[in-house]
Amino acid sequence: MSTTTAARRRSLSAGAAAALAAVLLAACGSTTPADSAGGSGRQTPSGGSAPRLQGTVTVLAAASLTESFDRLKQDFEAANPGVTVETSYGSSATLVQQVDNGAPAQVIALAGTAAAAPLDKSLVKDTKTFASNVLEIAVPPSNPAGVTSINDLARPAVKVVLCADTVPCGKAAQATFKKARIVPNVVSKEVDVKATLAKVKLGEADAAVVYRSDVVAAKGAVKGIEIQAPFNTKLHYPVITLADDAATKAFVAYLLSAQGLATVQSFGLGAP
C-alpha cells in the first residue's frame, strides 16, 4: 500500500469518528425541560408544561367541621398555591337552603345524610360519605352539676342546652332522648352546634348535647361525658360536589384521600 493511500484512509477514519461523536453529543444534550427539572415540569402532548391548578373553591360546611376543614383548607392551599379555598360554616339545614336559593358554592359538606334531602338534586355532580360522628354531653371542666350520664339531664337542677330541632344535632339529640326515654331540662335551643357548645363554655349552662368532634375541638374548654351506645345517634357526613372544574375535583379528592381523612379524624370524627 502506498504512503498516499494509507494517509487518505486515516483521514477518512478520523472524520467518521468525529461525526459519530457529534451525533452522540447532540443526543445527550437533547433533554426535555422535565428531565432537567428532575421531572417537575410534566409535559403536555403539545410539549408545554401542564398548568397548575388555579381558581377559587367555595366550600360550605357544617359547623361541626369548622376545625377540621380549616386545617384541610390550609394544607390544600399550601400544596396548590394557585387555588384559594373559601370556607363558610353553619347549620346544615341553613347551608342547604342557601344553595337551593342560588348561593355560589362548589362543595357542600353536611352533618348527616338526612340533611341533604331538601337539596336540589339537579345541582349535584357527585356525593361521597367521608366521616361519621356521634353525640356527646359537654359540661364545664369542673362539672358543677355532677353530670355522669344522659339520665342526669332530666334532673330539674341541671340546665341543658340543645341545638334547634330543625338542625341535625338537634334532631339527633331528640332521637337519643327518645331511645333513653328521658325528657331533659332544656333551658335553650341554639342555631347550631357551635352556639350550643358556647353556652357551656360561657358558664350559661350545666350541659349541652353536641358532637364528639366538638368536645375534641374544644381542647379542654369543656369536659365530655359519653352517651351509651344503645342510646346514642350516629350521623354519616356526605361531601357533595356541585361543580366540575379541576380545582373543585382536586379539593374533594384530597378530602377523600388517606391524608385528608386522617386530618378529619384527628379532630374527633369517625371513619365513613
Describe this structure in words.
Strands 1, 2, 3, 4, 5, 6, 7, 8 and 9 form a nine-stranded mixed sheet that branches. Strand 5, helix 5 and strand 6 (186-190) form a beta-alpha-beta unit. The chain has 272 residues and is an alpha/beta fold. It has helices spanning 3-28, 33-36, 66-79, 92-100, 168-180, 193-201, 212-217, 246-256, 258-265; strands spanning 55-62, 83-90, 107-109, 126-139, 160-163, 186-190, 207-211, 223-226, 234-241. The protein folds into two domains: 55-132 and 236-265, Periplasmic binding protein-like II (D-Maltodextrin-Binding Protein, domain 2, 3-Layer(aba) Sandwich), CATH 3.40.190; 133-234, 3-Layer(aba) Sandwich (D-Maltodextrin-Binding Protein, domain 2). The termini are far apart. The longest helix is centred in the N-terminal third of the chain and has 26 residues, at 3-28. Residues 1-48 have low confidence and may be disordered. Helix 3 (66-79) packs antiparallel against helix 9 (258-265). It has nine helices and nine strands.
Ordered list of secondary-structure elements with their pairings:
Layout: H1 3-28, H2 33-36, E1 55-62, H3 66-79, E2 83-90, H4 92-100, E3 107-109, E4 126-139, E5 160-163, H5 168-180, E6 186-190, H6 193-201, E7 207-211, H7 212-217, E8 223-226, E9 234-241, H8 246-256, H9 258-265
Parallel strand pairs: 1-2, 1-3, 5-6, 5-7
Antiparallel strand pairs: 3-9, 4-7, 4-8, 4-9
